[in-house]
Design goal:
This protein is of the alpha/beta class. It contains 8 helices and 11 strands.
Length: 234
């Protein structure tokens, strides 16, 4: 997941961001509604954690614009306004979920994962491709019915590759979607994660390097044109 946290209290915003990162959820920060709209215009997010009472552009207006522009992002309102009327108004504005302050970090994480589990139209909640089965909500991966234990980052990268269903995903896209905006664009984190993911998934190798382009999942039994992907990631 990649989440935008819209919160004008810097200590709280950073605490949420750090808590999400510990759960392998990439998180960016916006301190006001204007900055939030700018980030939404240039980045793809799975969810927005939105405080309603924020400067420049009010959180309610941010929610309205998300709905009006039909942005493919879930809205989780996180606010001190805990009355029933406030909650009703939040949902009427387009919120998918509503959490009041103070809150438990574990609950926020589970609510975000529940939002991410809601599939796009026609997409199955459990993804299957090339002998792999990935359950985003339970965070489980199986290869030919064999459970594969993955780190949080390996899981995030595999999730993106299996969603592409054999299409090539660039290293830049993996870095943008599985990490966050503070990731060093010159880091070798993607290459290292791909290499370790290959080892976890075992032989025959299913993660293929497309030289100079990116990475893809290739079914070893059905793709006669695959190159040798058994070595270290390039």
């Amino acid at each position: 997941m990649r989440v935008l946290i819209v919160e004008d209290e810097p200590y709280l915003a950073e605490a949420i961001r750090d808590g999400l990162r510990l759960e392998a959820i990439a998180a960016d920060l916006a301190a006001d509604g204007g900055a939030a709209l700018e980030s939404l215009a240039v980045n793809e997010y799975d969810a927005v954690v939105l405080d309603r009472d924020i400067p420049v552009v009010h959180g309610d207006e941010v929610a309205r614009r998300i709905v009006e522009q039909q942005l493919p992002v879930r809205i989780l309102m996180l606010t001190a306004a805990d009355s029933l009327n406030a909650k009703v108004t939040g949902f009427e504005l387009g919120a998918d979920d509503y959490v009041t302050k103070p809150f438990e970090m574990r609950e926020l994480v589970m609510r975000l994962r529940a939002l991410a589990r809601r599939p796009a139209e026609g997409a199955p909640p459990v993804l299957e491709f090339a002998g792999l089965r990935l359950d985003p909500f339970r965070r489980e991966v199986y290869r030919d019915d064999r459970y594969v234990a993955l780190t949080r980052k390996q899981f995030s990268v595999l999730h993106l590759l299996i969603q592409a269903r054999g299409g090539v995903v660039s290293a830049e896209t993996l870095l943008e979607r599985a990490w966050d905006e503070n990731a060093d664009p010159f880091t070798n984190a993607v290459r290292i994660t791909i290499s370790s993911l290959r080892k976890r998934l075992g032989d025959p190798a299913v993660v293929q390097t497309v030289a100079g382009v990116g990475y893809r999942l290739a079914d070893p039994d059905r793709d006669p044109d695959r190159d040798d992907a058994s070595g270290a990631a390039r």
